[in-house]
Amino acid sequence: MNSTNMNNAKERPNYGYYVGYSVIITFLVIGLIGLVLLVLGFRFGYSLNIVFWVIGAILLLLFLWPGIGMLFTNRNAYREKTLHFDFLREYSNAQILDCGCGTGRHAIPLAKQMTEGSLLTGIDIYDTKSISINSLEHVKKNAELEGVSDRTRFMFGSVTDIPFDNETFDIVTCMGVIHELGKLKSKAFQEIYRVLKPSGLFYFRELNRISQLPTTGIIAFYFKSEAYWEYELKSNNFEILDTHKGGNYYEFLAKKSTKDWY
Length: 262
Hints:
Blueprint: H1 3-10, H2 21-40, H3 46-73, E1 95-99, H4 107-112, E2 119-124, H5 136-145, E3 152-156, E4 169-175, H6 185-195, E5 196-207, H7 209-216, H8 226-235, E6 238-246, E7 249-256
Parallel strand pairs: 1-2, 1-4, 2-3, 4-5
Antiparallel strand pairs: 5-7, 6-7
Helix pairs in contact: 2-3
């Protein structure tokens, strides 16, 4: 490979991995301890081997299975080229906010499909436990390499404390983020509602837990059901316009209700 080709290769966008490898290694190590306990169970008497087998089986289910699944899933880290945001066609000069933008895996295809004059703002806390190489510098570089730096801006910010005034954005998107927030989920929905303009659109996407079973095992039930997310949206004063369940995700397109309540 000549020097020109090497430089081009270095300039390819890098979106990182879905899960930091420190997390995967931790799961695998604990899971392998479970495997060792299962094997050792055959070397002890009846009462003790039952204990070893039970503990070993639990560690296999909770750690080794998901660890292997995450390891193989991590090989699929790329900019999602199959995302289609048809609702963007109705907006010109739109102000769009992507919450939890990470390295731009969703924000950049969104920016590529925006109408002329629109601006996408991405915010994130840039936690490398969620995505390896997650940083403000990386997402800015990816936007530059993908040719959308002139219609995007990225900054630090949390979906539970969005650093913008009320009714700033026409559209807010949030993909695969809110399930990580625990008891702060409602706070995130309230903040999204607050910064949306009246009748503004909210595109929301979360992992389909049924589709996660083959790769994450019992951990898949950490993710919420479609009915759960519908309830959360309605409880936080969003009117659901469309839903789609396919592949690995639940997708919702919702509208901010005209009733102000924050």
